[in-house]
Design brief:
This protein is of the alpha/beta class. Helix content is 33%, strand content 23%.
Length: 377
């Protein structure tokens, strides 16, 4: 068993990176517009030996200052990962330790998966509420698929559930179906087409949508409704009875205490707790638990750009990873030499750590943000 290399934390710096998406992102079933901007709080840790690591983190300045002078081993131990004291530096610490050991992060994690990680474009939102006819709706979503293709994506996740809030129930279901069929036609027969209701369906409307799109080929149905054992069982039984391959994905939003009972019983196939909120340490142990039940991992990660790199290393380290959520965006200052996204495959490089860096000038600018800081011994 490897030991964590010696080193004392001498500096913690935090910046906020800001980027843009190629188009405005609209509503989901629950909340209104998401916009075209994207931001990521990024922390770099430095040690007295000159090592460093970085990653997404929301740690505050006072908490960071309290960690100065700590041994890395006080915050992180192998093989499990972050100790409670290091939880708010989870991703930067994994990067740091992998770099200190001169290992790609996926190798430190176990390297049981594939370095060619399949990704999907999760930015096909409810962008059609002002459309006046079906052809206008179709044009909107043909354009969104085209944008995804231009940025290297072949697979698409579609927000559904218009009838939960934004349209009458029956009209919303018909519009959901129209959009799903439009995306399938534009994306092609080989594309994985996923749908996500953000809890906006009932059991009856979820089944009605699947029935209406039975010939489309839905790869997974994400968050059809709030998790409930009888409802989840009934949905799964309907899918099985129709001999569909559609998976049920869930866990992103406030999963209940009995959530993993539903997974163990086979009512939920793909687990999606948020990657940033739960951390790589939590996900590493949870993936092993899910493997025993033949369940898949596909953590939620909407709203961040930089976390996809740690996330891809995690995917490359386990055998039961499913798909990585991403979306087209530009993040100035991010250095990702060796990474490549093409044909919905994100290729994980063999460089040490998580394999990314930030231009020093951009990092310095980002530290001027109200969330940014630098604390040093």
């Amino acid at each position: 068993m490897h030991e964590v290399p010696k080193g004392k934390i001498t500096c913690i710096e935090k910046c906020v990176l800001r980027g843009t998406r190629p188009r405005y992102i609209g509503f989901n079933a629950r909340i209104p517009a998401h916009g075209s901007q994207i931001s990521d709080p990024v922390v770099r840790i430095r040690t007295d030996g000159g090592a460093w690591g970085l990653g997404w983190s929301r740690i505050g300045e006072d908490e960071a200052r309290a960690l100065l002078g700590k041994e890395v081993g006080d915050l992180f131990q192998l093989p499990d990962g972050c100790l409670p004291a290091g939880r708010n530096l989870d991703l930067p610490l994994w990067d740091l330790v992998a770099r200190m050991m001169n290992l790609p992060l996926y190798r430190l994690l176990g390297a049981r998966g594939k370095r060619e990680v399949e990704v999907y474009d999760g930015s096909v939102y409810i962008d059609d509420l002002d459309a006046t006819d079906e052809e206008q709706v179709k044009d909107i979503f043909r354009g969104e698929v085209e944008t995804g293709h231009e940025h290297g994506y072949l697979h698409f996740k579609i927000k559904v559930g218009r009838g939960a809030r934004w349209m009458p129930t029956d009209a919303g279901l018909r519009r959901d179906e129209l959009v799903i069929r439009t995306v399938r036609e534009a994306a092609g027969p080989q594309a994985k087409v996923l749908i996500d209701a953000n809890m906006g369906n009932t059991l009856n409307t979820a089944i009605a949508l699947l029935d209406a799109c039975a010939d489309v080929g839905i790869y997974w149905f994400e968050e059809p409704f709030a998790e409930d054992a009888p409802l989840n069982q009934a949905l799964k039984e309907h899918i099985v009875a129709n001999d569909w391959d559609t998976l049920v994905a869930d866990g992103e939003f406030a999963p209940p205490p009995y959530f993993f009972d539903l997974v163990e019983k086979g009512f939920i196939d793909v687990v999606q707790h948020d990657f940033r909120a739960m951390g790589l340490t939590w996900w590493r142990s949870t993936s092993a638990r899910l493997e025993q039940w033949n369940a898949l991992c596909a953590p939620h990660c909407w709203g961040s750009y930089i976390e996809r790199f740690h996330h891809a290393h995690f995917a490359a380290s386990i055998p039961n990873f499913c798909l990585l959520e991403a979306a087209p965006a530009a993040m100035p200052g991010l250095i990702t030499d060796g990474w490549r996204l093409a044909d919905s495959i994100l290729h994980v490089p063999d460089t040490s750590g998580a394999g990314l860096d930030i231009d020093p000038r951009i990092f310095a600018q980002g530290m001027e943000d109200r969330e940014g800081f630098r604390v040093v011994i």
